[in-house]
Amino acid sequence: MRPNRSRSMNPTIPTTTFPQSLITPRGSGHAIIDIDLDGVCADYITAMRAICAKEFNIPEDSIPEPDTYNLADAKGWPIRDSKTFLQIHTKAVADHLYRKIPIFPGTKEAFNYLSDSGFHIRIATHRLISSGLHQIVVSDTAAWLEEHHLPYMSLCFVGPKDTLDANLHIEDSPSVASDLVRAHQQTVLMDRTYNRSITGVPRVRSWDELTRAIALHLNEVGTTSPA
User: For residues 207, 148, 137 and 203, what is the CA-based torsion angle, rounded to 10 degrees?
Assistant: First the structure.
């Protein structure tokens, strides 16, 4: 199914462009958009800030926005090493972190726009890092998506995302984004404080900015044939 080129969003002109076509069908016959969850749709930092504040008995507002993706290395965060991070993260997952995690503003509206435009939305997340909790992770993730009424066609738990072929990948991880670009996969970063050191990858500040860029692209290619 090809995206509907006639739909449009806010007319403000965005700066992000897409050199590769977003409407060319992939091997499945669909135009596919891969969307990460944590840091893109789900506000993992806000959730972990609250968890760490409780764990270390410190005020939430004393924990700043992280300056690096690895919270064990982030300045001002109380997590002293990777082992401590994994312990806290695993405990939170067992307590249904992925069922209770807050959603970023604009996520539902963006998913509805992409779905209505004809894209095959594939959730691509690397959440299976806590041994023995895979069933909780999968069920809580699916329940969270349903509770927030987010339309999607596929739910993929995957480590190396550069093995996935899509028209567009929406990411927050600087290392994953770099891997995708090296694999010649069109990628956009959701701008976060912890990924601003990376260059050479287009970034957007919000879902609204991204959907406006996609709408502009679809309108521009509306008079041409798919590549």
Answer: 0
Pairing state between β 154-157 and 120-125? parallel
Model confidence band, residue 62 (pLDDT cutoffs 50, 70, 90)? very high
Contact present, 161 and 126 (Cβ < 8 Å): yes
Q: What is the largest CA-CA distance in the chain?
A: 59
Rg (CA), the chain: 18
First to last CA, the chain: 15
Distance CA 119, CA 33 (A): 7
pTM value is: 0.90
Q: How far apart are CA 67 and CA 196, in angstroms?
A: 8
Tens digit of each residue's pLDDT (9 = 90 or more) over 119-172: 999 999 999 988 899 999 999 999 999 999 999 999 999 989 999 999 999 999
- Per-residue DSSP letters for 47-86? HHHHHHHHHHT--GGGS---SSSSTTT-TT----SHHHHH
Could you list the active site residues? 36, 38
